[in-house]
Design brief:
Blueprint: H1 13-24, H2 33-49, H3 56-73, H4 89-118, H5 144-160, H6 175-189, E1 191-193, H7 203-218, E2 222-225, E3 234-237
Antiparallel strand pairs: 1-3, 2-3
Helix pairs in contact: 1-4, 2-3, 6-7
C-alpha cells in the first residue's frame, strides 16, 4: 500500500484512524480491529522508513491497537469474575472516534463561519450630528411659521362656525391616504386654496390634513404660495 501523506496533515492518532476508516469505506461501528491495526502500523512504518519524526501519541495508539488485536486473537480462557466488568477496549475506541468526529465536524463549521466573517467589513458608527438639521424649508416664498399661522386662524374660524348640534363619530385617517387625495385634487384643479382641504370639521381629519400638506411640501410634490401678507394661501402642484 502506497502512502502519499505525512503525519503533519493529521491532528493526532484519532484523526489518522478516521482517515483510514474513511479510506476503507466502512462504518465506525463495523471496524475490524485486526485490519485497522494493520493499516495503522503500515502507515507508522512508512513514516519510520522515511526517517520522519513520529509523535509519541501515535506510538501510544499503536500500542493500544496491538493490545486490542492480541486480545481478539488469543482465546479467552479466563474464568476469574474480575474480568466480568472490564471495559471493552474496542467499544471505548469507537466511542472516542465518534466523540472526536463530532468535534471535528463542529470545528469545520466554525472554520467556515470564520471565513465568512472575514468577508465582512465593520466599522465604528460615524458621528452624524453635524449633518442633522431641524429646520423645515418649504420654499422661498413662504415659511413654516406662515403656514402654522394660517392653520391657527383657520381653526379659530371653524370653531366659531361649528354647528350647535353635532354627532360624534370615530373614524381613522391616514396621512398617506390624505396625501393621495390632495394630489388627486391638484391633478384635476392644478391649484387649491389652503382652507378648501379642511372640508371635514373634526380634529383628527384637520391634523392629518395639515401633516399631509407638510409632507407633500417637504417632498417637493406641491408648492405653497401666498401673493402678499394676509392673502389666501394656495397649494400648487410642482
Amino acid at each position: 500500500m502506497e502512502y502519499r501523506f505525512t503525519i503533519d496533515k493529521f491532528q493526532g492518532p484519532l484523526d489518522l484512524l478516521l482517515h483510514l476508516i474513511k479510506e476503507a469505506d466502512i462504518d465506525i461501528f463495523d471496524i475490524n480491529v485486526s485490519e485497522i491495526t494493520l493499516q495503522y502500523l503500515n502507515y507508522i512504518e512508512s513514516m519510520e522508513n522515511l526517517n520522519l519524526n513520529i509523535d509519541s501519541e501515535y506510538l501510544v495508539m499503536a500500542a493500544e491497537l496491538i493490545e486490542m488485536k492480541s486480545r481478539d486473537l488469543l482465546p479467552n480462557e479466563g474464568t476469574d469474575d474480575t474480568y466480568e466488568y472490564e471495559d471493552d477496549p474496542r467499544e471505548n475506541l469507537i466511542n472516542r472516534l465518534l466523540e472526536y468526529q463530532k468535534y471535528k465536524e463542529v470545528a469545520s463549521e466554525f472554520k467556515d463561519m470564520e471565513f465568512e466573517r472575514k468577508l465582512m467589513y465593520s466599522k465604528v458608527p460615524s458621528e452624524l450630528t453635524s449633518f442633522k438639521s431641524d429646520e423645515v424649508n418649504l420654499n422661498d416664498e413662504i415659511s413654516l411659521d406662515d403656514l402654522i399661522k394660517a392653520f391657527v386662524e383657520f381653526q379659530k374660524r371653524k370653531y366659531l362656525e361649528r354647528p350647535l348640534d353635532t354627532v360624534v363619530t370615530r373614524k381613522e385617517y391616514s396621512v398617506s391616504k390624505r396625501c393621495y387625495d390632495i394630489m388627486k385634487r391638484l391633478h384635476t384643479n392644478k391649484k387649491i386654496h389652503f382652507e378648501e382641504l379642511f372640508d371635514i370639521r373634526n380634529k383628527s381629519y384637520v391634523v392629518v390634513t395639515f401633516l399631509a400638506i407638510l409632507d407633500l411640501a417637504k417632498k417637493g410634490q406641491l408648492k405653497i404660495k401666498q401673493e402678499k401678507n394676509l392673502d389666501d394661501i394656495l397649494l400648487v402642484m410642482e
